[in-house]
Amino acid sequence: MERLKLATTPNALCALVAAAFLSGFCFASPAFSQDIAPLGQNPISKQQAEGKPLPGENNEVTPDPLNGFNEAMFSFNLKLDDWVLHPVASGWAYITPEPVRTGVGHFFDNVDVIPRFANNVFQLKMAEAGVELARFGINSTLGVAGFFDPAQAWFGLKEHDNDFGLTLRYWGAPTGPYLMLPFFGPSTIGDTVGKVADGAMNPMSYLLPWYVSLSAETGWRVGEAINYRAQHLNMFEEADRYAIDLYGAVQDAYLQTRDNKVKQLHEEEW
User: Fold this and answer.
1) What are phi and psi of 172, to 5 degrees?
2) 115-138 burial code (b ≥16 CB/10 A, e <16)
3) Residue 188 structural domain
4) Pick the residue with more confidence: 237 or 193?
5) What b-and-e string marks burial along 36-70, b requiring 16 or more CB atoms within 10 Å of the CB?
6) Threshold 0.90, pTM exceeds
7) Count: domains in the chain
């Protein structure tokens, strides 16, 4: 009851709204970049030469029953990136050399070990889960709190990225329609459930008071988003250069990337 009363005061509500905005906003860049990155790595001339459709020009019609909402949120996220995230990330890139930004990226990636470990276990991939634990131990010590990646460089232990949305897909659960989330970027109904599940794995929310864990999570995620965007300052420009329909390109790339990832997870069994 005391927490409820505190949360309903005007100042507390403003703080919670601001914190929710910042913590949500920081996910937009990684979510976009995950899906747009393949566009920049596949020049238009190469795809045309191979007779492949460009992202956003796929002849197959992807069901998009939430199109009106999705396109509005896509425009909102792009404006948010133009007005806030890109300028801040540009400033961060200006004052920090590339090795520093790479090290910070390794640090954030190292901290996110719990969802990767847990979802490999959920998929009964015990060897991969063990690799994640080994990587965390090596990089947290020899890698100076995760700023370096000696686990891969010295021992050949590669990261096995995973999340609960992939776990649902792996076991055949329906993903639901495509969904463009404000702040968080492209998703589906199932992948959104996965984001919530992965977020619930953060031990800080159970070990620390809610206001401490919320502040720490917000700062962590905002820093992660700014650093990631600083490492990919031109990702939207590259995507827009190769795609006639940027919204369709992001949608196609996201869904194809997720489908291919699930196929890879099943192929690893053999």
Assistant:
1) 85, 15
2) bbbbbbbbbebeebbebbeebbeb
3) 2-52+67-267
4) 193
5) bbbbbebeeeebeeeeeebbbebeeeeebebeeeb
6) no
7) 1
